[in-house]
């Protein structure tokens, strides 16, 4: 059941006529922060909108499990938001959990190397406000609390990944993420589309960020719909939720 608090968002703006109707036989892929819920600087500060876990459960059930979250966050963070165990590409698709709950690693190169980890932690000591996040396959240097350190931090990272053709710097939100080349949400979407129950369906993806562009392209390339929160919606996560809720309520206009 959908939480009734979503009903207030049911007066849909006119541009909704431009959006595709989400059908039960679509495979659905959703970014999390900035798409399903408003962005927060840390996972602990995220506010999960009332009704979101029930909405996601209904969307997943409607398409027999062919729905996955594609996020830069860890699997634990994703599960904390969705309140259940859904198929998910965590850490930009480095860890993909299929519909049976089995975790796969489509990419095997790691950018979380001991010497780089140590170099970043040393830098964080010298640069107050810089925080280092260690993920399974990537390292993230956050400078939200010290924006002036951003350029110097990037130069440092460029210096130690020099001569590593398999490693790149991904500009994230007030952070630099060091990761293997070719990783990302587009690749994760393609991986899911080869698995049951996604295989054979038309993919629909919604995202809001530069890291989502590859998944938007991948969905479009498969004859589906890659939608952007700012280009295709009005830039608010409430509008995305209302569009999704309309699909499970079967509202006809
Ligand atoms: Mg996002």
Topology readout:
Layout: E1 26-30, H1 52-62, E2 67-70, H2 75-82, E3 88-90, E4 95-97, E5 103-104, H3 114-126, E6 131-134, E7 139-142, H4 150-161, E8 167-172, E9 175-180, H5 185-192, E10 202-207, H6 213-221, E11 225-228, H7 237-249
Parallel strand pairs: 1-2, 1-10, 2-3, 10-11
Antiparallel strand pairs: 3-4, 4-5, 6-7, 7-9, 8-9
Helix pairs in contact: 1-7, 5-6
Describe the protein in words.
The chain has two domains: 171 residues, 3-Layer(aba) Sandwich (Rossmann fold); 67 residues, Trehalose-6-phosphate phosphatase related protein, domain 2 (Alpha-Beta Plaits, 2-Layer Sandwich). It has a seven-stranded mixed beta sheet with strand order 5-4-3-2-1-10-11. The protein has a four-stranded antiparallel beta sheet with strand order 6-7-9-8, with helices on one face. It is built from seven helices and eleven strands. α1 crosses α7 and α5 packs parallel to α6. With 253 residues, it is an alpha/beta fold. It is 29% helix and 19% strand. β1, α1 and β2 form a beta-alpha-beta unit. The longest helix has 13 residues. It binds magnesium ion (MG). The site of magnesium ion (MG) has 7 residues, from loops. The site of magnesium ion has 7 residues, from loops.
